[in-house]
Amino acid sequence: MTQLAKLTDATRMLSEVRTARDAKELSDKAGAAAMYAKKAKLGLEAQNHAAAIKLRAERLASELLRVLEKGKSTGRPPKEMITNVGNHLGQSEYAAALSEAGATHQDGNRWQKVADVPEDKFERHIETATADGRELSTHGLLK
Fold it and tell me: Residues near 111 by Cβ (< 8 Å), separated by ≥ 6?
C-alpha cells in the first residue's frame, strides 16, 4: 500500500473513531506516519497531512473524554470485585477511559489544550502552516 493510500485510509478512520482508545491509536499511527514521511523524505505535504490527522485525532479524543466525569477516585474496590480483565473500578470515568486508551493524564491534558483551540483558529493554523511550508505539530498549534 502506498503512503498516500495509507494517509487516505487514516482520514477515513477519523470518521470511524468512537472511543478515546480509537482516537489514541489513530493519533499514534498518524504520528508514526508523519515521522516516517520526514525520515523517508516524502515531502512536507505528506508529513503535514499525517500531522493534521494526528491533531484531529487528539482533538477528537478530548471531545470524547470531555463528557466523562472527572471526579476523584472512589478508592480501591474490594478485592472480590477486582478482575484481571480491564477493570477500572475505583477510578473516575475520565481516568478509566484514559487508562483503557493507554493514555496518560499528560496526554489528556494536551488533548484538551488542542480541543480548546477554537475550530476556526484550528483549521486556519493547519491551512496556513501547510501553505507557508512550515512543519505542522501539536506544539506549533498550541504556541
Answer: 58, 59, 61, 62, 65
